[in-house]
Sequence to fold (740 residues):
Amino acid sequence: MSDDHFNKNKGSILKLFTPGPVKVPDRVLNAMALANDTHRSKPYSEMHKLAVEGLQKLLFTKNDCLIFTSSATGIMEACVRNLIKKDEKALFLSIGAFGDRWYEIGVSNGKESIKADIEWGKALTPEIVKEELSKHDYAIVCIQANETSTGVYNPLNEIIPIIKDSGALICVDATSSMAGIKLEVDKLNIDVCLASVQKCFALPPGLALCSISSKALEKTKEVKDRGLYLDFLSIQKKNIVYQTPNTPPIPQIRGLVVQLDHILNQEGIENRFERHKTLGKRTREWANEIGFELFPEKGYESDTVSTMKNSINIDFEKMISTLLTKGYRIVNGYGSLKNKTFRIGHMGEITINELDNMLEVLTDIISELK
Amino acid sequence: MSDDHFNKNKGSILKLFTPGPVKVPDRVLNAMALANDTHRSKPYSEMHKLAVEGLQKLLFTKNDCLIFTSSATGIMEACVRNLIKKDEKALFLSIGAFGDRWYEIGVSNGKESIKADIEWGKALTPEIVKEELSKHDYAIVCIQANETSTGVYNPLNEIIPIIKDSGALICVDATSSMAGIKLEVDKLNIDVCLASVQKCFALPPGLALCSISSKALEKTKEVKDRGLYLDFLSIQKKNIVYQTPNTPPIPQIRGLVVQLDHILNQEGIENRFERHKTLGKRTREWANEIGFELFPEKGYESDTVSTMKNSINIDFEKMISTLLTKGYRIVNGYGSLKNKTFRIGHMGEITINELDNMLEVLTDIISELK
Fold:
């Protein structure tokens, strides 16, 4: 039964140009297939230490870097549960579906949550941020670095200093850009910078991580009813001895260490960021040649995921399913953007050549469908 | 760097007789090393469906079986957050460290939590349960099937009907017994039966699962401020179409399907339960020969983990570290039981022969240390 099932669906045949989960390199799959020692053993702690130290380098931070057995949504919920007291307010500056989700997490946890709705496709501006901050005092402000649904990358260098000036803690969801687009946590003084690993890290899903400032940890101590599973303090306390309070996803942590070594010591961190810039540029040039208008406003297009409008009136579902028969997966628009947009993920270990090859096949398909 | 690190610590050399994480069979490691499609693809949903249907067979239930990207603690927290309203009380019938943890989860989530402390080493009795239930009206009652810290297996057939009669929902943490010791969810009418997979399932950690009754799902609808990440309703809604609301740990799910196939169609479910009975019996016979008194009261010893007292006054740390040099890992007592007890895990894929071989080596070490 299972042999048949897995041979039939062996994913390695399929080339994923998706905004996560993405193609995982063999070095990671092989490392994950090694047997495990327990999470209270010395070999485990040595591995955990390598993960933490590698993340600190990747994020340009001296802050603690914590590991969660969860998806990124788990840490988005942790921010809400750990950093907002009963009489305090949270501001969610949403530019798309994942911003909306964070606001829903705030509401569903019974926290006083206020959402600023920015038109999808637009980025945050200093003006918008200033105006929103002037309305109330906020304990925390939550933003996306890269909004996976619209393909917009926020101008973090311009807006985060304004948020910090207000006295609020700043939480940044960098899920679809961390390890692909440069983000310097200490320079911007980010309190929580979070991501999962099935995007630019090119790992299988099952692990999320974040950096956390001492200010955020201090704040956590003041917040009641935080629960245990997503409690920053419990996790940080064990992180100091390179463990986790609960059993962690050991294979993914081993994969993370392998990828951090690759990023920092093989490819080189700046080379990796440059490659993603080139992947983004190349995809946008191609879209321009075909006649696809980009969904994001000019200047704010993400270098890890491109969202294109249906400017040439083509059947997206047919385009995507035909491309799938050629061995490539790209994806339709997210939620309400389905069939109005489609998305190409160009993150993780994808090379310029691989992108060019896929775009060539896609161009042929579009010619036939037009 | 990483090559050296992983060769040096290659876990496959080490034979784990731990109460989780345990040794993972090659068929699982190989399956987990296959590349992944995305969690919104048809191949993923087919795999998720196999997992759900396999779990229903394993647990003898028609209830929904849900998959969480979390450790078992995540679902313990989900029970607390989803099933207790503001004016309601929860009862934690604790017989050890994991019962205590569940109570702490209740308290840390701001729920009105009452703990009955049973002396460690003892099991719950119908008398204790009746007495505790008579004190208040409870919305939920939380118990361990197998308490991993003490090695006690509760008499579920005797106590669960009493709890159900009280009208409370019953949540059972079967983390270190599910897939090793027979537990019939529908026969006992269990509302939530949860576990993680790094114990008797013999998978690497990173996934937890539970069955959930329609009564528990109905109750969830009445509870406010449940949050999103551990929300039973959001997870169940996506489970119907064999997906998860957030990105799941795809490699572990593939491993789970492989193991469920092995358990149900290769080894045979009843053979598996019998093997664990034999492993437990053999370990207790060995302890008796050596002179180790069992920590659990007679008749309630677990068949997946044996906890032994230091009746022969031996240096446990030395015994354990010497055994480690021979390639076997067993573990010291949990928390306050450290050095007063030690534990041998005999769960997952361990064979009688493998257990006998380890016990032979351990016997020699004990002779030398005496």
